[in-house]
Amino acid sequence: MGGQVERRGLLISLEGLDGVGKTTQIERLHVWLQERVQEVLCLREPGGTEFGEMLRQLILHGAEVSSGLAEFLVFAAARAELMETVVLPALSRGAVVLMDRFIDSSVAYQAFGHGLDPDVVMEINRLVIKGCTPDLTCWLRGEPYALDSGDRMEVRGADYFRRVEQGYAWLSEQEPERWLVINSRQNPDIIFDTVTTRINLLLDKSLGGKNR
Ligand code: TMP
């Protein structure tokens, strides 16, 4: 199974409902980080590897799946491949890894949204990430304002999204020191400033200038 991985970099995830502006913020953060650290990776889940991108196509746009467990295991398989081949090696090199969604999406969407047991989801997540919990998770809290792709999650409706949002709220209460909760309805510049202020603190504390 492999033990804990030596970890010198930083792992930062962005979470929130579809259409709250995560991807815009991630793209800006990527550029901002490139100017400050030696190596930064910007990845999305599901995806980030050839295998993961194929699973993304399958789960978001392919055949219908009614089992919540089957759905979760596809996300978990994509995550396992991404961790082993990309994220863990990058963290051991000292890179900053920015994730557009990560483990918490599975708890929010598959456990709270779809009704899977959160303990099952969290236990499998735990095996998949091998101790690499994010250093910071930024949650853009609030209702979607721009749903565009019409993928299978996006058409699940308001009740589903409400449960997903409750899942994020629950998660942020479990580990308040990891979570930065941000109102997604604010001006994007204010959101960006809030996130970068927090990341700057992390860079100073964790990297101690090593990777700058
Ligand atoms: P996005 O990349 O446009 O946010 O689309 C990914 C979709 O997949 C989004 O609706 C959330 C969903 N998702 C899950 O349901 N569980 C997961 O573990 C992950 C990573 C994503």
Plain-language structure description:
The protein has a five-stranded parallel β-sheet, sandwiched between helices. It has 212 residues and is of the alpha/beta class. The longest helix has 26 residues. The radius of gyration is 16 Å and the shape is globular. The protein has seven helices and five strands; from the N terminus they run βαβααβααβαβα. The N and C termini lie far apart (33 Å). It has a single domain, classed as P-loop containing nucleotide triphosphate hydrolases (Rossmann fold, 3-Layer(aba) Sandwich). The site of thymidine-5'-phosphate has 12 residues, from α4.
Bound ligand species: thymidine-5'-phosphate
In whole angstroms, how far apart are the ends?
A: 33 Å
Number of strands: 5
Please indicate the count of domains.
Answer: 1
Look at the structure and give the CATH class: Alpha Beta
Residue share in helix: 40-55%
Q: Strand-and-helix sequence, N→C?
A: EHEHHEHHEHEH
Strand content: 5-15%
Overall shape: it is: globular
Q: Main beta sheet: strand number and arrangement?
A: 5 strands, parallel
